[in-house]
Amino acid sequence: MSRTGARGGPQTRAMIAEVAARLFLERGFDTVTVADVAQEAGVSSVTVFKHFPRKEDLFLDRSVDAVELLRSAVRDRAPGVDVLASLRDMTLRLVGARHPLSGVNDRSIPFFRTVAASPALVARAREIAADLQRTLAEELERDPTFEGDATLLAAFFIAGYGTVMVETARRLIAEEAPSAVMDDHRARFERLFDALRSGVVPRP
After folding, report:
1. pLDDT higher than 50, residue 7
2. Are 125 and 170 part of one and the same domain?
3. Which helix (DSSP H) or strand (DSSP E) does residue 79 occupy?
4. Where are the alpha helices (H) located in the chain, listed in sequence order?
5. Which pLDDT does position 202 carry in this prediction?
6. What's the structural domain count of the chain?
7. DSSP secondary structure, 11-44, as one string
8. What pTM did the predictor assign?
9. 203: pLDDT strictly greater than 80
């Protein structure tokens, strides 16, 4: 039995993702194979693919978390809180906590560099963004209290979020002062929500 054989599914998945991230950051995404990850993690390639159907998802492994955050922002918001306010609170909470999905985590710079160096990762990131846009639009369409264009809000929010992340990535890779980048990162999110409030979603 491998050293991971006695562990539960979520633990094994997290361990594989951690090993994969370390290898990708050290060697570059395109030079590391799934077999390399499996060997380093002490599992079979079949086990890796069981948890991560695509190699790119070994590195972009937060998409499941992003889906749950979007769903929760719509479904679990307090009475009287509109969707845009809930999305804003979620976004700024992630930034404040320096969550990996915020773009300003301690590992963001090597993460961004690795993604930028791999066309496969860039393409997969775009696919994930499209999936998130569809998820958010579907949640908004199901919500009986949402007034507005679900498709437009989902498109503008996901595109705006991605735009802020890409600009922050560019500045961090260029080795600009992290404190200045962090301040501007939050300010740009604030401007994004101001624009969405003014142009897409009426005030409650």
Report:
1. no
2. yes
3. none
4. 9-27, 34-41, 45-51, 56-59, 63-75, 83-96, 108-116, 119-142, 150-173, 178-199
5. 54
6. 2
7. HHHHHHHHHHHHHHHHH-GGG--HHHHHHHHTS-
8. 0.86
9. no
